[in-house]
């Protein structure tokens, strides 16, 4: 049961003054927590943290104000100059002065009555905003703060700047956050006093108050004491949660899986290539874990095209040799069926009995699959979330593989555990992860890395092209299709949107259909399963040569002779996603290209992303750069372990705190496994505050 002193933080944000359903929906868009089916709570607002500040402490006077500087000026209003009646193209101007000079305050489409009330002629007024100089004359366009001198105490000298969304003002968000802060009770300290002093950490509540009401820019700096305190708290909550999950899973004693090697050997002979050294090393680590009586929890991390699926298949074969069953779970039906298409021919040559189970299997097909799993006639099953259903019963599940782990949650790792007698578990990700994020998101696992790609893979030439040169690109596409090449064309949207003015997949398909005729296909996530299968089959077999798609083909799709990837509005995608999409080509022995179409003008972050994509194909280097560029927000779907995500993308700055948090988590659990001490009670509060619901559930269960 949740501690009652936290109840004020668990009320819906719509119960706060000035936050109705409309504003609440906007605030939910900037809350960093994956809310799932629940509404945002007041406590969620505590962790909507500012990413920078506006420093209004600079008071240089009008004459001493530099071009482009944010300044605060004490001025006296001289006169108002409204635009001519009916001519809204001319701005409204208010002229003022101080001891150093005169300034024009400029307003477009202004309401005269408001300005006359806010700045009466002859009154002493405090204004703040960005200074501009035109022809040697100072001006300030739309000052962002105006107050009579008698009311200037309310001016925030260091104003926090929060992430916003269309329709939500910073003022409204700040007011809501202030109410959430007022609801934060005085909490017992869960940190060790000596550690607090060494780190110069403020108390938890003081740290939040300092960040939301900064007195100095250092208060919202990633290097500041307040931010470091909260960073450590989040990291500690994460590591305690992962340690609890690991302890829970490890308590389920596994059994050694040692086969005679017959099936594995047949699989190796069926492979059309030799394993890389990295694959062999990872497989040796997995085999050693399988042979150990203790249950395996291992992450297999590899770049696009590094051969994770083959490693997983060989490991599953070993489990079958030992007399058990194996399951391979994928996040999407397309990926599950692609895995089946990849491993089924190899499995047949090795004598492995394999089946698929997704939401699409119905009737006799589903009945037979369920019966085969229950009787043990099926050795390996490939499936989606459908494998979690109660009707799915295994005869003897001893090994589970979860692909694209970042799309699943910690609780789903436990759910698959319930399907067998403490099955060994291998989770895979094709998104390379920097070391510190591995420790954060997958701290309950051992890690194997695949750092090589199979021999024969050709480098992918990556170019950027503005959308203004689309006709030139289309001419080259016509030539490429005529030459027998296959082309992916990725769009960010399925269909036209009133809110986002981008070319959708359906519109792009319609625009290119006259040019390519029957040689063009379309696939997106809203199509029925059979339609998607048919579109992919036609493309793979060469009946269509250009496939218009959304990111539904981001992972798992394997068409070795596809040689061109066009990504439209590439500036709208993150680095990791661009890298995943590019990895759909260059999978054969033919030189491939990736064209990143972008819309000008580009921001600095978008420019850097596209530049990185041109410079390297190294997924681990791209992941590191992605970490630097993202700033605030979630990077890897970290909600899988309950992380609000305000700190994860800046973790590189706090690697020392991460190591300390890992050590402290181990120490806490070794001394007090069920966290029943006074400090343990405080840690429960910490876990509640950071949304570690799975960890709290495990604590309650003992």
UniProtKB/TrEMBL annotation:
Pfam families assigned: DEAD (PF00270), Helicase_C (PF00271), RecG_dom3_C (PF19833), RecG_wedge (PF17191)
Domain of life: Bacteria
InterPro entries referenced in this protein's UniProt entry, alphabetically: DEAD/DEAH_box_helicase_dom, Helicase_ATP-bd, Helicase_C-like, NA-bd_OB-fold, P-loop_NTPase, RecG/Mfd, RecG_dom3_C, RecG_wedge
Residue span(s) of domain Helicase ATP-binding: 289-450
Keywords: ATP-binding, DNA damage, DNA repair, DNA-binding, Helicase, Hydrolase, Nucleotide-binding
Domain Helicase C-terminal: 469-628
GO MF annotation list: DNA helicase activity; hydrolase activity
NCBIfam families with a match to the protein in the record: PRK10917.1-2, PRK10917.2-2
Protein name: Probable DNA 3'-5' helicase RecG
Species this chain originates from: Mesorhizobium qingshengii
Lineage, opening ranks: Bacteria, Pseudomonadati, Pseudomonadota, Alphaproteobacteria, Hyphomicrobiales
């Amino acid at each position: 049961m949740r501690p009652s002193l936290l109840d004020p933080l668990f009320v819906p944000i719509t119960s706060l003054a000035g936050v109705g359903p409309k504003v609440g929906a906007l605030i939910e868009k900037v809350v960093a927590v994956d809310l799932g089916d629940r509404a945002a709570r007041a406590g969620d607002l505590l962790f909507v943290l500012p990413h920078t500040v506006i420093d209004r402490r600079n008071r240089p006077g009008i004459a001493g104000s530099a071009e482009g500087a944010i300044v605060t000026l004490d001025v006296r209003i001289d006169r108002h100059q409204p635009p001519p009646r009916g001519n809204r193209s001319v701005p409204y101007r208010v002229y003022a002065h101080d001891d150093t000079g005169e300034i024009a305050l400029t307003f477009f489409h202004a309401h005269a009555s408001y300005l006359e009330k806010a700045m009466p002629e002859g009154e002493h007024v405090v204004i703040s905003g960005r200074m501009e100089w035109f022809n040697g004359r100072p001006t300030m366009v739309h000052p962002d703060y105006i107050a009579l001198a008698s009311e200037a105490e309310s001016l925030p000298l260091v104003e926090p700047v929060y992430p916003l969304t269309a329709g939500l003002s910073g003022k409204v968000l700040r007011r809501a956050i202030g109410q959430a802060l007022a609801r934060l009770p005085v909490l017992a300290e869960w940190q060790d006093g000596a550690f607090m002093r060494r780190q110069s950490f403020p108390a938890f509540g003081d740290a939040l108050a300092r960040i939301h009401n900064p007195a100095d820019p250092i208060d919202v700096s990633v290097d500041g004491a307040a931010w470091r305190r909260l960073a450590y708290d989040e990291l500690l909550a994460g590591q305690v949660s992962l340690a609890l999950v690991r302890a829970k899973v490890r308590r389920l004693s596994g059994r050694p899986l040692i086969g005679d090697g017959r099936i594995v050997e047949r699989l190796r002979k069926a492979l059309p290539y030799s394993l890389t050294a990295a694959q062999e090393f990872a497989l040796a680590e997995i085999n050693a874990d399988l042979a150990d009586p203790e249950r395996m929890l291992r992450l297999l991390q590899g770049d696009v095209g590094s051969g994770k699926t083959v490693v997983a298949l060989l490991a599953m074969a070993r489990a079958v040799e030992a007399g058990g069953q194996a399951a391979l779970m994928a996040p999407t039906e397309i990926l599950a069926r692609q895995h089946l298409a990849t491993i089924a021919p190899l499995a047949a040559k090795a004598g492995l009995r394999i089946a698929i189970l997704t939401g699409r299997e119905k009737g006799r097909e589903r009945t037979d699959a369920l019966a085969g799993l229950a009787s043990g006639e099926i050795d390996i099953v490939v499936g989606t979330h459908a494998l979690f259903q109660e009707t799915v019963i295994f005869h003897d599940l001893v090994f589970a593989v979860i692909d694209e782990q970042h799309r699943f949650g910690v609780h789903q790792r436990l759910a698959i555990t319930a399907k067998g007698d403490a099955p060994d578990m291998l989770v895979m990700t094709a998104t390379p992860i920097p070391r510190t994020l591995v420790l954060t998101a997958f701290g309950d696992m051992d890690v194997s890395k695949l750092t090589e790609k199979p021999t024969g893979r050709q480098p992918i030439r990556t170019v950027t092209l503005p959308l203004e040169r689309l006709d030139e690109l289309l001419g080259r596409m016509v030539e490429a299709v005529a030459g027998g090449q296959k082309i992916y064309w990725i769009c960010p949207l399925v269909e036209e949107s009133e809110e986002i003015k981008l070319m959708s997949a359906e519109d792009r398909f319609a625009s290119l259909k006259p040019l390519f005729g029957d040689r063009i296909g379309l696939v997106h996530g809203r199509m029925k399963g059979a339609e998607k299968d048919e579109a992919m089959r036609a493309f793979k077999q060469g009946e269509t040569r250009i496939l218009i798609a959304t990111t539904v083909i981001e992972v798992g799709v394997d068409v070795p002779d596809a040689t061109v990837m066009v990504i439209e509005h590439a500036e709208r995608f993150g680095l990791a996603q661009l890298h995943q999409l590019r990895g759909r080509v260059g999978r054969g022995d033919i030189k491939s290209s990736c064209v990143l179409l972008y819309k000008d003008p580009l921001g600095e972050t978008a420019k850097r992303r596209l530049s990185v994509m041109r410079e390297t194909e190294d997924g681990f280097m791209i992941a590191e750069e992605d970490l630097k560029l993202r700033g605030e927000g979630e990077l890897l779907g970290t909600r899988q372990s309950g992380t609000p995500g305000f700190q994860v993308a800046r973790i590189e700055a706090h690697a020392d705190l991460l190591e300390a948090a890992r050590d402290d988590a181990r120490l806490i659990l070794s001394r007090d496994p069920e966290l029943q001490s006074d400090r343990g009670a405080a840690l429960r509060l910490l876990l509640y505050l950071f949304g570690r619901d799975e960890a709290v559930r495990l604590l309650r269960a003992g």
